[in-house]
Amino acid sequence: MNKTAQYKLTIIVPVFNEEDNIAALEDRLSKFIASSPDFPACVLFINDGSKDSSLEKIMAVCSRQSAFYFASFEKNCGLSAAMKAGIDLAGSQFVGYIDADLQTAPEDFHLLIPHVNDYAMVMGIRTNRKDSFVKGISSKIANGFRRFMTKDGIEDTGCPLKILRTDYARRIPFFTGMHRFLPALLMLQNGTVKQVPVRHFPRVAGVSKFNLWNRLIGPLMDTFAYRWMRSRYINYNISENNID
Predict the structure, then answer these.
(1) Residue 58: which of 88, 104, 100 has the closest Cα?
(2) Which CATH superfamily is domain 3-230 in?
(3) What is the pLDDT of residue 158?
(4) What local confidence, expressed as pLDDT, does residue 142 receive?
């Protein structure tokens, strides 16, 4: 039996060389789980081929925390692959997502949960962002161009605090860079998205994995790939069958 199936929410946490954040993740996520008895949640770490001690620390956490699980890649595959693996492995009705850098707060899942039954995805909008000048400008340019090209109306697609219905999440067409287009990809399935303001914090440990290329140039190129795919996306609903 898939152990995550006994929970309502599986929180996917992609991890790549975040050894200095594992203790804080254990503390903050375990406190969130304890504070949410009416919406049972578990944590699924996806170790994305870390070269430091992240995996060893994750395994130690999972050995002492009953609601913590992990899967580990043989090599680094990237954020989109880690998210896809988490969605594929989760057996719960909903899947959540938070970054290992804790620049968003696990407690703010409480702000998203009240809306999950009414939308395919509920996601945060980071308020009072604590980014560097270069990161802020490049993110604003990339997000504005993506919003113009996709027409998804999403203010902050990169916010790393989200809850999705698992049945919708499993139908998302995955590709490298997919994590930047989750709302637009859900809308291809006629899924609706709710945006909720959440807090944002500076990184206090570890090193950012993003640079000017993968924060600005890469997303701009991916937007054209999304436009191509959108025009060819297959969407259907079966009215009846005799299989069941």
Answers:
(1) 100
(2) Spore Coat Polysaccharide Biosynthesis Protein SpsA; Chain A (3.90.550.10)
(3) 81
(4) 64
